[in-house]
Amino acid sequence: MDLTINGRQATVDDAAVAPDMPLLWVLRDVLNLTGTKFGCGIAACGACTVQVDGQAVRSCVMPVAAVAGKQIRTIEGLGAADAPHALQQAWAAHNVPQCGYCQSGMLMAAAALLQKTPNPSDADIDAAITNLCRCGTYPRVRAAIHAAAQALGGGKKA
């Protein structure tokens, strides 16, 4: 099966990967893209969030066959160490991560939100970011999303 992940073609061996295998396990175990995390396995927590054709999806329940021919973006494709995405910069500036486990999923959900809604309201953020964070950094997440929106030219000055 051929997949497009972070703008690059990846081929996974059909003999090694069943069509109903969750995308999460293909990313982590087959392609060694370990930034996407396993949290709950039932699409409730969002630690596994990636983007498929720009939409935030929970990869723990997404069969890999369902994403063939689509654009998949993981946290590894959001930014680079020498050129972090505006969200990654805002995350650091607002001290969002504590334990950090949920952060890749949160960032991917936030990036999908900003692609769709460049100037999100607090209500937009609350509706789009349904990821769970045991550390409770939700106020910082919201502030970081607003800061990133402003940096990307969509947000209002705080």
- Mean pLDDT figure: 95
**How much β-strand is present in the residues?**
5-15%
Any idea what the shape is?
Answer: globular
CATH architecture of the largest domain, please?
Answer: Roll
Give the class from helix and strand content and strand pairing. Answer: alpha+beta
Name the helix and strand elements from N-terminus to C-terminus, one letter apiece. Answer: EEHEEEHHHH
CATH topology of the largest domain: Ubiquitin-like (UB roll)
Q: Number of DSSP helices?
A: 5
The CATH homologous superfamily of the largest domain is called Beta-grasp domain
Write down the Rg: 15 Å
Gist of the model:
32% of the residues lie in helices and 12% in strands. By secondary structure, the protein is an alpha+beta fold. It folds into two domains: 2-77, Ubiquitin-like (UB roll), CATH 3.10.20.30; 86-151, [2Fe-2S]-binding domain (DNA polymerase, domain 1, Orthogonal Bundle), CATH 1.10.150.
Tell me about this structure:
- With 158 residues, this protein is α+β, with helices and mostly antiparallel strands.
- The protein is built from five helices and five strands.
- Strands 2-1-5-3-4 form a five-stranded mixed β-sheet, with helices on one face.
- Strand 1 and strand 2 form a beta hairpin.
- Helix 2 crosses helix 5.
- The mean pLDDT is 95.
